[in-house]
From TrEMBL:
The lineage of its organism: Bacteria, Pseudomonadati, Pseudomonadota, Betaproteobacteria, Neisseriales. It holds the Pfam family STAS_2. Residues 17-102 form the STAS domain. This is Lipid asymmetry maintenance protein MlaB. InterPro entries: MlaB-like_STAS (IPR058548), MlaB_ABC_Transporter (IPR052746), STAS_dom (IPR002645), STAS_dom_sf (IPR036513). PANTHER family: BLR2341 PROTEIN (PTHR35849:SF2). Gene3D superfamilies: STAS domain.
Length: 102
């Protein structure tokens, strides 16, 4: 799992790439927390490069959205979208680009 952060005038864009699973959870949690603290403004998270997402990855996304009032998830990969929709979390995660139905 790699996490790229691009600073923008009004915040930053995060692009996690690879599996977002229990194996990466601790390291990714720390990186996401740092991004929230250092981003001054909105945080956009591009999920298009997620190859696998398990319940730990979903918990990280939920925590990210709950901690950051200006967090926006968008462009989910098929793997991310399927898991998010299967668990009924598209609306909770304020996910752009995913059907809110099951």
């Amino acid at each position: 799992m790699t996490l790229t952060c691009t600073h923008l005038d009004d915040g930053c864009e995060l692009v996690p790439e690879g599996a977002m699973t229990i194996m990466e959870a601790a390291e990714l949690r720390d990186q996401l927390a740092l991004a929230l603290v250092t981003a001054h403004g909105r945080v956009r998270v591009d999920l298009s490069r997620i190859t696998e997402l398990d319940s730990c990855g979903l918990q990280l996304l939920l925590a990210l959205v709950r901690e950051g009032t200006q967090v926006q998830l968008h462009s989910p990969s098929a793997a991310a979208r399927d898991r998010i929709v299967r668990f009924g979390l598209a609306a909770t995660l304020r996910l752009e680009g995913a059907s809110h139905g099951a």
